Amino acid sequence: MSSKPFAITLDVGSSLANKTGSWRTERAVYVDRMPPCNHACPAGENIQGWLYEAEEGGDGYERAWRRLVEDNPFPAIMGRVCYHPCESACNRGQLDEAVGIHSVERFLGDEAIRRGWRLERAAEPSGKRVLVVGAGPSGLSAAYHLARLGHDVTIHESGPMAGGMMRFGIPRYRLPRDVLDAEVQRILDLGVRLELDKKVTDVESAMREGGFDAAFLAVGAHLSKRAYIPAGESAHVLDAVSLLRSMEEGEPPRLGRRVAVYGGGNTAMDVARTARRLGAEEAVVVYRRTRERMPAHDFEVEEAEEEGVLMRWLSTIKEAGDGRIVVERMQLDESGFPQPTGELEELEADSVVLALGQDTDLSLLDGVSGIEVEDGVVKVGPDMMTGHEGIFAGGDMVPDERTVTVGVGHGKRAARHIDGWLRAAPYDPGPRPELASFDMLNTWYYADAPRTEQPMLEAARRQGTFDEVVAGLDDANALFEARRCLSCGNCFSCDNCYGVCPDNAVLKLGEPGERYAIDLDYCKGCGICVAECPSGAIRMEPETI
Amino acid sequence: MPHQQIKFYQAGSFVAGNRLLPPEERSVQARMDRSNSLTSGHRACQGCGEALGARYVLDAAMRATEGKLIAANATGCLEVFSTPYPESSWRLPWIHSLFGNAPAVGTGVAAALRAKGREDVRVIAQGGDGGTVDIGFACLSGLFERGDDVLYVCYDNEAYMNTGVQRSGATPPAARTSTTKPVGPEPGNAFGQGKNVPLIAMAHEIPYVATATVAELRDLEYKVERAMEIRGPRYIHVFVPCPFGWGSASRDTIRLARLVKETGLFPVFEAVNGEVVGVSKIRRPVPVEEYLKLQRRYAHLFGDDPRDDVIARLQELADRNIRRFGLLTDAPESAGLPGHAGDAADAPPAGVEGESNLMRMLAETHRGAQ
Question: Pairing relation of β-strands A282-286 and A258-262?
C-alpha cells in the first residue's frame, strides 16, 4: 500500500526541475553600446558616464566631476565655450529636446571651483620628461594627461599668460578669466612646470637642452590671414587676432564709432560683439556669402544679432579709407561660390577688422627631418605623431576642426600615445562599441520632461541651454537636466528586464549598478526584456546549436 | 491615482524599479525578495502575458498579505502550464478543482478560514477569460452577490487558448479564432456580442472593481494592494496578450498591452462600490491599426483586400471608450459612467440616480457594441 494520500503516487516537485531554457532559439545578451553624445565628443568625454553620477545629486556631483576630468580637465571652460556636438547627436533631441549637456558640465565645473576639488596624479612617476610647446587648450590638456600618467612635464609658452586662444581669442563675456585661471592652475598644481615668455624657435635643440624624451607641439594658429585691400593712408585696418589679444594685454585699440568686420566665422562674431562692448555704435559684419553658408555657429550669429550687430551678406570689401569702405555685391554661382557683380556701394566705417582665418607659425620645425606640412598645417598620424619620431603635435596646427574641444581631444589622444611610445607599449583604444541609435530605445519608459508641468524648472533650463551669458544652473536645475539623460545603450538599473520576464529568468545581481544576468536554464528567448529595455542595453543573439 | 504620483525625470513611474528611487518606492517586481509566486520552469509559451500577469498579481498580493494567501484556480492555461503532475510552479498554497467553479472554491476556502478563525489568511480566486466570462460566470456572480471575502482575478487573453483558440465571451469583434473564421462579409468574431465583465461586476455594487494590463506594472500592483485592503468580494480584470492565440511576436506582449490601452480599446479604470473613481489616461494616443496590425488574428483586415470599414468600426469602439471613460482629457466627460465620483457636486443624490446611470450605461454598452 502506498503511504501517499489518495491518488498521489509521486512527491510534489517544483517546476524548477523543468529547464525550459532548452526551448530557446535566441538568447538575450546584455550589451554596452556607444551613446551618441560620447561618440560625438571631440574630447572623448564619457558624457553619459558622468551624467549617470550627476543624476544622484549631492555627493554624485563630485563623482561626476572626477569622471569628467578623466578625459577633460576643463569642465567649467567646456561648459561655456564648447559648441557641444554631443547635444546635436543626443537621442533625446528626437523625443523632445536634447539634454543640456553643456549646462550640466558647466555646473559641475563651477562646483569644482567653488568647492576647491583638486586633481590627482593617477600613476607612479615614470622618470620620463616631456616638453609641451604652447599653453593653449591642446598643450594644457596634453600636459595634464601626461602628468597624470606619471611623466615629468614642462610647458614652454611664448606668451605672457597661459590659455592660448581660450584667453587671446575667446572674449571674456563668453569665458570669464577667473574660471580660466582656476582650471589652468589646477593643472599646474599637479606639478606641471609652465615657463612663460619662452618661445621655442627650434624644437630639436629645445628638447636636447632640456633633456626631454618626447615633445608635444601645440603652438596654435595665431597669424591672421590677410586679404589685399587697397587702403588710403588714413584707413584704420587691423586684424582680429591682434584686436582680441589686445583686449587681454594693455590698451584696447580705438575702433571709432563704426566698425566693419570682414569674415563670417565665429571669430568675426566675437570681434563684432567685442566692438559693440568697446562702444562702437555700429558693428557690421561683411561676409561674401550667405548666412546659410557662414561658418559661424547659428547661436553665435543669433547672439550677435541680439546685441545689435549688423550683417551684410554677399559682399566683399574692395577698398578702405578715410571713414568709409567700398563693398562690392556678390552673387553665388551654381557651385555656391561667390562671384563679383560689379555693383559697388559705399559704407561708413571708421575701422576695418579682418577676421579671415588664421595661419600657424611653424618656424620651430624648420630643418626637422620627417615633418610634412600641407596647407600650412603639420601632418600627424592617428597617434598624433608627426613624421619625426618622438615629436607629436595637435590643436590648431594640425589638420582638423579648430575648436577648443578638438584641441583638448588632441592633447588627450597625444598624451596616451606619447605614454605608450615612452613605455614601448603602444596605446590601443580598442574597438568602438556599436552606436546606440534612437530606434534601439523604448522611449515609452522615459518620463516626459514637459514645459507645462514644470514651468519653473523649464524656464531655468532654457536659460542654461541657450544663453551662456546668463548665470549657470543651480543644483535643482542641474539635477533635473542630468536626469533627462536617456542612458542610451547602457544599463541604468531600472529593473525593467527583471520585472518583465514571464519566466523569472532575469536575475538581479544586487544593488543598483550591479546589474543583471540571464538565467539560461529558464530563458525561453521570448525577447520581452529586449523590447522593454528603455535604453537598448540588451540584444537578442541566435543560439548556436 | 496614487501610484502615478512619483515625479521623477529620466524614468519615473513607468519602469519597474530605478536606482534613484528610495527602495520603498520601487515596485514589488523590482525587489530581490519578491515571492516569485509563479516560479521558473512553468510551461507557458514564450512571451506569455498570463504567466507574467499572474506573477505580478500574486507577488503584489503576497506582499500585501505578508505571505498569508491561498489561491484557487480555474481550469485553463494558467492551471495547465503551471502544474503538470507532479510538478508545480506555485509557491503559495494553491488549489484547482474544475473549470467553472473557481469562485465557488474561493468562497469555500474563505468560509473554512472563517470557521477556523484564520481570517488573517486571504483568498484569491483566479482564472482565464473562458473560466470567468463564460463557464464560471454563475459562480462568479454568486460570489459577488454573497459578499464573500475573495479577490477574483480574471486574466483576459480573449479566447480559450489552452484548447486551441476558440472564441470566448471576451473575444473582441473581428478577431479570428478557430471558431470565428475570417471569412464572409463579417469576418472573424461578430460585433455586438460578448460580455464586459468589469461593468457587470460593478453592477453587483461590490466594494472594488478594477481593470489593468501587464504593461502598467505599478498601476496593477497598486490595484492589487488596494484590493487587499478591502474585505468582501473584489474583482480585477487583467489584460494579458497571448502570442500563440493572437499570432503576435513573443517580444510584443507588453507592447500590445500598452497599445490596447493607448488606443482606448481597453479602458483601464477602477471603481468603488459601483462608481468609477479613476481612469488611466491615454499618454500617447494611437489609432487602432497600430494595435491590430501586430496580430495575425486581425490579418484579414489588412493585406491585399483591406477591410477599412471593419477597422473603422473598431476605431469607433475605441473612440466611444475614450469619450465614456474620459481617457484623454483631464476633465473626463463622465456622463454615462455609473455615478462618476467627479460629478458628485452637481449630481442629484446618489442612489436612485446612480442606479439609473448604471442601467443606462449597461444598455449603451450593449447597443454600442452592435
Answer: parallel
Query: To the nearest whole angstrom, how far is the Cα of A480 from the nearest Cα of chain B?
Result: 7
Closest CB to A495: pick one of B30, B51, B254.
Answer: B30
Which residue is associated with the grid cell 529547464? A19
How far is Cα A302 from Cα B229, in angstroms, rounded to an integer?
A: 60
Pick the CATH number of A234-355 from 3.40.640.10, 3.50.50.60, 3.40.50.11600, 1.10.10.60: 3.50.50.60
Across the interface, which of B18, B44, B86 has its CB nearest the CB of A502? Answer: B44
Find the closest chain A residue to B27 by CA distance. Answer: A499
What is the per-residue pLDDT across A102-151, written as a single tens digit (0 to 9) for each? Answer: 989 999 999 999 999 998 887 899 999 999 999 999 999 999 999 999 99
B201–chain A Cβ distance below 8 A for any pair: no
CATH of region A15-32+491-542: 3.30.70.20
Tell the residue number behind the cell numbers 459562480, with chain if given.
B139
Contact criterion met (CB < 8 Å) for A528 and B41: no
The verdict on a CB contact (< 8 Å) between A55 and B20 is yes
The interface predicted TM-score of the complex, written ipTM, equals 0.87
The tally of CA atoms less than 13 A away on the side-chain side of residue A357 is: 11
Q: How far is CA A119 from the centre of its chain?
A: 20
| Per-residue pLDDT tens over the stretch B163-205 | 999 999 999 999 999 999 999 888 999 999 999 999 999 999 9
CATH number for A129-222+360-422 (one of 3.50.50.60, 3.40.50.2300, 3.30.470.20, 3.30.420.10): it is: 3.50.50.60
In whole angstroms, how far apart are CA B293 and each of A398, A527, A540, B179, B311? 55, 19, 23, 21, 10
Which of A4, A6, A10, A14 to mutate: most B Cβ within 10 Å?
A: A14
Q: Which one of B10, B13, B27 has the shortest CB-CB distance to A483? A: B10
Q: Which residue of A has its CA nearest to B46?
A: A526
B43 contact residues in A (CB cutoff 8 A) = 15, 18, 20
Interface residue of B251, B258, B280, B281 to substitute, partner A, most A CBs within 10 Å: B251
- Report the DSSP beta bridge partners of residue A129: A152
Which helix (H) or strand (E) is A452 found in, with range?
none
Q: Closest CB to A500: pick one of B19, B52, B86.
A: B52
Structural domain boundaries in chain A: 15-32+491-542, 37-118+451-475, 129-222+360-422, 234-355
Residue with cell 475614450: B322
Q: Which residue has the higher pLDDT, A324 or B10?
A: A324
- The secondary structure of A50-93 as a DSSP string is HHHHHTT-TTHHHHHHHHHHTT-S-HHHHHHH---HHHHH-GGG
